[in-house]
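Appendix B. One record, verbatim.
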Amino acid sequence: MSPGTTPGGSVSASGSFKLRRLGAIGQTLLAMTCWALVGSARAQGMPTLTLEESAGGGETWSLSLQALALMTSLTLLPAALLLMTSFTRIVIVLSILRTALGTQQTPSNQVLIGLALFLTLFVMRPVFEEIHSTALTPYLDGTVDAQAALGAAAEPVREFMMAQTRETDLELYLTLSQSPAPGDASDVSFWTLLPAFVTSELKTAFQIGFLLFIPFLIIDLVVASVLMSMGMMMLSPLIVSLPFKLMLFVLVDGWNLLLGTLAGSFLV
């Protein structure tokens, strides 16, 4: 039996006091270490997280604050890639295609996500190039500050999202947020546009998936009817229909048609 425990196995009062004392000592040492590091950084002239006076007389973020904001924003990059680009529509359609073919895990999830990612980069290339020329390059050259660069970078993304958003979905979220009717596209709040864009993307993806599912469903129905008429009750129709669905998809050059249609759907 370890010291500080009762015969029933619970921690005694003296053992609990020792644990609390060790915790207090550890917190004190951690606080002293952080204070020493801050003092050392100030003594060595390292940049601190403060606001600096700008040339126009206002205040701007110091380099340390800008780096901290950049590192924090990188954690939101996966969510932005999923919900503010063409990735959502593409990956849903590819997943529906795999289900319609009945190939279980072929192509694998890694292949589908990789294909959707690179097709997203292809579709979003004009937007990224505009962000690079209007926001990133001026910011790196020092001609604009971080806030102006962020506003310039958001404008191409807003235009892309607005072009792919249905008016009915936008009106829905304007009504839910009790916002006044905007005069033009620039008056729409970004926080209203984002859910409307995601809803439109989901609706479009399922519409494309429905049209994609029909020919494979017809093959399944035909094969099931033939097997029933022949009395082959123990043979799964999915096993028999799979080669025919694969043959149909290959003969019509399905990957070319599907990926071309997906990429072209964002140009309308």
